């Protein structure tokens, strides 16, 4: 009989400890994962000069970008919208803003090369409203990159479906190299350089520009990155970027910089 009472008491005590308070569900002890990546990202930034494919379209500018990556498809697909507003008068002598709607797909890795394909539609609400010649147009893009250990190589091929000159129609090639150095657990130093070739994109064919960049991405937490940067764009007198759009200055030897903040969710 003593064995029966001992067994009953032990069983009841075990049950009470396992169940917690009577009338309440057991508390889930699983740690909360604060940095679950749902595929979304919001970014905003400031830049001293807005340069697009080597051409300065505006001075002091602010921008924002919202994107979402869909992973449930055969390949990851990213959709997003990017908007920039020039604070000062643009290099083209008018108020300038730009709205880009884009779609890109990561096609995969082939022979060690990462390949992606995308499409962007460019519109210029304020600029168009000032009866400027720059209209909206679409552009297809293929990006190819490969890690070589020493540096990362990146090549992009764009084709503009515009009407020519101010709304580009033609091919644009850009080849660059990038190297990242770890400064600390949360800070990196990224150096980049490259050059571009225009094949009818700006209405003519030839070397377009060369560039160099230095950025310092700072990881503030698992979701947030702050990236200050400086860059340089140049081209000899015979290159397309120098004197484009009737000699609007400055279109070469441009030292620029800015800062970007991105938050993933």
Short characterization:
With 265 residues, the chain is mainly beta. It has one domain: Beta Barrel (Porin), CATH 2.40.160. It is built from three helices and 15 strands.
Task: Walk me through what this model shows.
This protein has 265 residues and is mainly β. The protein is built from three helices and 15 strands. The strands form two sheets. Strands 1-4-5-6-7-8-9-10-11-12-14-15 form a twelve-stranded antiparallel barrel. A two-stranded antiparallel sheet has the order 2-3. It is globular. The termini are far apart. Residues 1-25 and 129-133 have low confidence and may be disordered.
Total count of domains? 1
CATH topology: Porin
Count the DSSP helices: 3
Largest sheet: number of strands, sense, barrel closure? 12 strands, antiparallel, barrel
CATH architecture: Beta Barrel
Total number of strands: 15
Distance between the termini: 62 Å
From the alpha carbons, calculate the radius of gyration and give it in angstroms. Answer: 27 Å
Q: Which of globular, elongated, flat, extended, rod-shaped describes the shape? A: globular
Uncertain segments of ≥5 residues (pLDDT<50)? 1-25, 129-133
């Amino acid at each position: 009989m003593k064995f029966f009472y001992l067994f009953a008491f032990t069983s009841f005590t075990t049950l009470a400890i396992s169940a917690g308070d009577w009338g309440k569900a057991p508390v889930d002890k699983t740690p909360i994962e604060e940095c679950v990546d749902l595929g979304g990202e919001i970014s905003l930034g400031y830049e001293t000069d807005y340069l697009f494919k080597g051409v300065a379209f505006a001075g002091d500018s602010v921008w924002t970008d919202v994107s979402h990556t869909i992973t449930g498809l055969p390949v990851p697909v990213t959709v997003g919208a990017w908007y920039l507003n020039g604070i000062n008068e643009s290099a083209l002598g008018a108020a300038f803003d730009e709205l880009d709607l884009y779609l890109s797909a990561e096609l995969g890795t082939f022979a060690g090369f990462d390949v992606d394909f995308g499409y962007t539609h460019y519109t210029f609400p304020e600029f168009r409203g000032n009866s400027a010649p720059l209209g909206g147009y679409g552009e297809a893009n293929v990006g190819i990159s490969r890690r070589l250990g020493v540096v990362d190589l990146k090549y992009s091929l764009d084709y503009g479906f515009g009407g020519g000159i101010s709304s580009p129609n033609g091919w644009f090639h850009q080849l660059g190299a990038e190297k990242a150095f770890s400064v600390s657990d949360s800070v990196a130093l990224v150096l980049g350089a490259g050059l571009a070739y225009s094949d009818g994109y700006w209405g003519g064919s030839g070397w377009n520009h060369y560039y160099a960049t230095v950025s310092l991405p700072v990881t503030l937490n698992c979701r947030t990155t702050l990236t200050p940067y400086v860059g340089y764009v140049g081209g000899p007198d015979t290159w397309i970027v120098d004197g484009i759009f009737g000699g609007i200055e400055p279109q070469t030897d441009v030292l620029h910089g800015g800062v970007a903040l991105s938050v993933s969710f």
